[in-house]
Structures are given as structure tokens and as C-alpha cells.
């Protein structure tokens, strides 16, 4: 928040579009996704994320850019987990 100079909700709202552009740059996206994935891990040695969390993460990180693909993949993950 400090780097964004967003010390109020309204300033944060104004900063988000630029932040989103920054994250979507290929040079930054991998770092962002890796950080997001690691943030979702609850234990130090955990190597995977539960289905519900990964569906939320995919929607958050990729949903605005690849809506149809993300929706289909999330549906696949949710249906596929019944067969595991």
C-alpha cells in the first residue's frame, strides 16, 4: 500500500487499474502468480492447494483476461474432484 501511495480506500481503487496492468505484463506475471500460489499454501511443506482455493485463485488471477477458459477449467476441476 505504501508503494502505491494508497492510504485510503478511494486511493486504492484509483491505483488498482494501473496495478492490474503491471501484473499482466509477462515479465511480472510469473512472479505474481508464484507469490499468489505460495500465499495460498497453509503449511511450509505443502506442495498443492485444495480445489476450492485454486479455483478462486485462477478466477482472481486469470479470470478477467481469459474468462471462458478459466470458467471451463474451474468446472473441470470441480467435476474431476468427485472422481478422485
UniProtKB/TrEMBL annotation:
GO CC terms of this entry: ubiquitin ligase complex
Stretches assigned to the DCUN1 domain: 1-84
Q: Which GO terms describe its molecular function?
A: cullin family protein binding; ubiquitin conjugating enzyme binding; ubiquitin-like protein binding
Q: Which InterPro entries match?
A: DCN-prot (IPR014764), DCN1-like_PONY (IPR042460), PONY_dom (IPR005176)
The alphabetized list of GO BP terms reads: protein neddylation
Briefly state the protein's biological role.
Neddylation of cullins play an essential role in the regulation of SCF-type complexes activity.
Q: What is this protein called?
A: Defective in cullin neddylation protein
Amino acid at each position: 500500500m505504501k508503494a502505491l501511495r494508497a492510504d485510503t480506500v478511494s486511493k486504492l481503487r484509483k491505483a488498482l487499474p494501473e496495478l492490474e496492468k503491471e501484473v499482466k505484463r509477462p515479465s511480472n506475471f510469473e512472479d505474481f502468480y508464484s507469490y499468489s500460489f505460495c500465499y495460498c499454501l497453509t503449511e511450509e511443506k505443502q506442495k498443492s492447494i485444495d480445489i476450492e482455493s485454486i479455483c478462486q485463485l485462477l478466477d482472481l488471477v486469470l479470470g478477467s483476461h481469459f474468462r471462458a477458459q478459466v470458467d471451463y477449467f474451474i468446472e473441470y476441476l470441480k467435476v474431476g474432484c468427485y472422481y478422485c
